[in-house]
Amino acid sequence: MRLATWNVNSLNVRLPHVLDWLAAEKPDVLCLQETKQEDAKFPYDVLKAAGYNAIHNGQKTYNGVAILTPHAMDNVSLDIPGLADAQKRVIAASIQGIRIVCAYIPNGQSIDSDKYQYKLGWLQALTNHLATELKQHPKLALLGDYNIAPEDRDVHDPKAWEGQVLVSEPEREAFKKLQALGLHDSFRLFEQPESSFSWWDYRMAGFRRNLGLRIDHILVSEALKASCQRCWIDKGPRKLERPSDHTPVVLELAS
DNA sequence: ATGGCTTATTGTATAAGA
User: Does the global pTM surpass 0.85?
Assistant: First the structure.
């Protein structure tokens, strides 16, 4: 079983890339972030014709998350229960006995911004919610754009980024609190190339120079850990014309 | 060097992303 996550930075623009990637990689689950469109504009029909069922939690211009799968989905839920938040950042469903949670964690903008405080509060609410979810669904995967580089090896230039948003200690502590729920960073369960990143700035030829960050992650619960076979970052889509600034992260699970 | 790209918007500049 193959699970993947991809921040597409507008599904309207990136739909051809997504369709090509689905056809080539045939994931069992693809979680999307930053669809940037209302539900009424979401391409359910085109995806269905490509063999994928989809659920979407979207809004105009910003945010928006979706789950694509050729399998059946049940127990669909939107947002974080009990959190007053107009931003569409979470969607979840049970697929093939696994609880799939797709999240677009806030960016935070800068550490002196109100958005940074929103990010930290949001992460606490997500963590509390997942503690409950895990009791009901021991087999759980949290896939998405975390907007956190967990360690210095996930940053192309740790000195330059030190203390900045995406890298700051409170954000890394929030990531560790997710791990303390028994969630494992599946990418780090395996040997990986040095300087592995999932996002590169559009500016300054960031991708060509590999000036990136690893901020897109697939965390898996203890009950799923043993079935993890392989995890990788697929840089292919980042090389296409008009790419998203993020590229897919993929996890292979036994059967 | 505080910019540098890319996206969306009832736009012709601004906000946001990371």
Answer: yes
